Prior knowledge:
With 472 residues, the protein is mostly helical. It has helices at residues 2-13, 19-31, 33-43, 49-75, 80-109, 124-135, 141-170, 182-198, 207-225, 279-288, 291-301, 306-313, 319-327, 331-347, 355-380, 385-395, 400-412, 419-438, 444-452, 459-469; strands at 236-240, 252-255, 266-270. It has a domain at 2-113.
Amino acid sequence: MELIGNALFLPLTQNYASQEVRLGHVLSRMQQIPRLLDQAKAALVDADPIYVKVAGEENDGNIDLIQSDIKEQVTQLSGDQAVQLNARYEKLAPPAIAALKNFSQWLQQDLGKRPNPRSWRLGKEFYDAKFKYVMETDITPEQVLASAEAELKNVRAQMLEIALPLHVQMYPGSGGYSELAARERENKIIGEVLAKIAADHVQRDQLIEHVKQDLDGITRFIREKKIVGLSERENLKVISTPVFMRGTYSVAGFHQAPPLEPEAEAEYWVTPIDPKMAAERAESKLREYNNWVLKWLTIHEALPGHYIQFEHANSVEPKERRLLRSVLGNGAYIEGWAEYIAQVMMESGFGDRDPRFLLSMKKIRLRVLANAILDVRMHTMNMTDDEALDLMMNSAFQTRAEAEGKLQRAKLTSTQLPTYYVGINEWWELRHKYEEAKGKDFNLMEFHNQALDQGPLPVPVLEKILLGRSGK
């Protein structure tokens, strides 16, 4: 369903032609929806229930896109072309919507009831093969799992060290829970401090505005500390995540400007709280993405994370190389950069070394570790839903809303979740090697610019390029 949604949504937001021309393209694509869905029915033989569920949810987003965004843009036009486009919309929208509704019904009553010989679990053979192609490195799932599980224990110990003085301030007279067993005490102290930190969050209708305000402060800090070269295009726009993409991007995401149209709009998607979401679940989500974690989120998705990353990549020359590296972009490089640079920002003093921010960043590190662990274990070791939720909630301190969203994502996007952990480790290893090679001539901003200017290559390939340039 994302195929349909993207086909309709992108011409609405990318200014490659006049609005009238772009809406004409949208309506032409809308006209083909019934044919596409008939072909999909003929091609689909069976599907796991999780795919049926999410496809139905995203299909609702496609219907909403036609009934709201597209209709709104068409009706705002004026002149002769507006009359023609309105007439086309009124003719094409009803059969497109009817086909989408019919397809959702077919998903539930036909495809969803067919015997499904396969599971969303890839199994070890297929997972190992896909893992190698996704990471483009020699590291194995077993190595990632062992490393992540060992580091998870170490990060929790670091969090306890940060949390203890905060706990004394926040919960005077608690006594430090010395009577509890070690892990129970660790969970109690860290959990209570994180609960206080989580209470500092925006209201459910203020999420996007708060993110925009954070962007200003982050941009100033990057310039002041000379972290990385910023884009001269200034083409970033913060918008609500398209409804048809919220099955995967339940919190936020980034959509780059097209590599052959680098001046076009780049979008930082922030998923608003659904007005129909129950108050308890909305509160859970807002607590997970409290004001401290929102800073990390904007660093990761926008500046100096994915937005700056792809702005550098969209300047690669010649264009053929730029396009190829974009299409075949390495996931560990991409996600690893966003995690690595967030840690660089923290170590450079962003957040004024406030222990609440430091503890929140350690919690994000736990999330990276849990991502890798649950993906490997769920797809190759039959980890159950309850075991996955226990890992995320009781070992990584995630709220239930966050954990349930990640559980669904793990089932849908095998081998994607470990790219964060593999990638951040590769970036730090590259940084240390480059720094050692440069010695006293090492310049942080120069290193970042040099690395990003190559586009999203596998980090081991990038290492050969950069270390060659550094004279080693």
